[in-house]
Amino acid sequence: MVNPKHQTVERIWYASYGSNLSFQRFMCYITGGRPTGSEKTNSGCRDKTPPLDNKPISLNLRLYFAGFSTSWQGAPAFIGTDKVSVTLGRMYLITDEQFNDVVLQENDKEVDGTRFVPPFQQLTQESEFELPGKRLYGHVLRVGKESNWPVITFTTSRKDMPIGSPSMAYIKIIISGIKETYPAMTNTQICEYLMRTEGIHNRIPTEHIIHWVEETV
C-alpha cells in the first residue's frame, strides 16, 4: 500500500489577472481573511498551504471590467477571448484541491468539499470548460503548461454584463499586484496599461489613475 505522504500531489498554475495579482489579496483565498478595500471576508481553502511558487505570465486575452461587485463597490475584472490583447498576469502553483476551492470562493459558493471544477485529468486535456449555471467566474480556460503542470485561468460565463468602472480600492489592489509582479515597470507604463482597458478608458480621469499609481506601494 502506497503511503499517502509519498503520493504525487496534482498541481495547477492558477493564472490571475485582477486583484489576485496581489499576493496578500490572493492569500485571503488560501488562508481566509478580508483583503484591504473589500467588504467581503473569504473563508479560505481546506488546505491553507501557501503556493509553492509564483511568477509573471502574459495572457493573450483582453482585460475588461464589467458588472458590479458588492465586495468592491465597482466592476470586477474579466478577460475576453474575442480579440487578442496583452493582459498582465501572475500565476500561483497550488494544488488541484486548492484551485477548486478558489473557484468556489470566486463564485460565492461555500468551501465544503464539493468538487466544482472538472476532474484534474480533464483540466489537463481540454482547453476550456463551462461550470454549471451562468457563473460570475464560470468559464475555465487552460492557457498553457509550465513545469509539467497546466496553467489555468477563469473568466465570466455571463454575456449580459455591461462594461463598468472599477472602484478606487479595486484598482489600487491591481496596481499593488502589478508592482509586486513586474517591478521593472514604471508608473507611467502602469498608467498606460490601465488606461487602455474597457471600464477605465474614457470613464475614469487619467489624473485619478496617475495619482492612485503614484501613491500605491
Write up this protein.
The chain has one domain (11-164): Hypothetical upf0131 protein ytfp. The protein contains 6 helices and 8 strands. It has helices spanning 23-31, 96-106, 120-125, 168-181, 187-195, 206-215; strands spanning 11-16, 53-59, 62-65, 77-80, 87-95, 128-130, 139-146, 149-155. Strands 2-5-1-8-7-6 form a 6-stranded mixed β-sheet. Strands 3-4 form a two-stranded antiparallel ribbon. Strand 7 and strand 8 (149-155) form a beta hairpin.
Percent helix range: 25-40%
Strand order of the largest sheet: 2-5-1-8-7-6
Radius of gyration: 17 Å
* Mean pLDDT rating: 94
- CATH-defined fold name: Hypothetical upf0131 protein ytfp
Question: What percentage of amino acids are in beta strands?
Answer: 15-25%
- Low-confidence residue ranges: 1-6
In a few lines, what is going on in this structure?
This protein has helices spanning 23-31, 96-106, 120-125, 168-181, 187-195, 206-215, and strands spanning 11-16, 53-59, 62-65, 77-80, 87-95, 128-130, 139-146, 149-155.
Keywords:
Hypothetical upf0131 protein ytfp; six-stranded mixed sheet; disordered N terminus; 217 residues; alpha+beta
Helix-strand blueprint:
Blueprint: E1 11-16, H1 23-31, E2 53-59, E3 62-65, E4 77-80, E5 87-95, H2 96-106, H3 120-125, E6 128-130, E7 139-146, E8 149-155, H4 168-181, H5 187-195, H6 206-215
Parallel strand pairs: 1-8
Antiparallel strand pairs: 1-5, 2-5, 3-4, 6-7, 7-8
Helix pairs in contact: 5-6
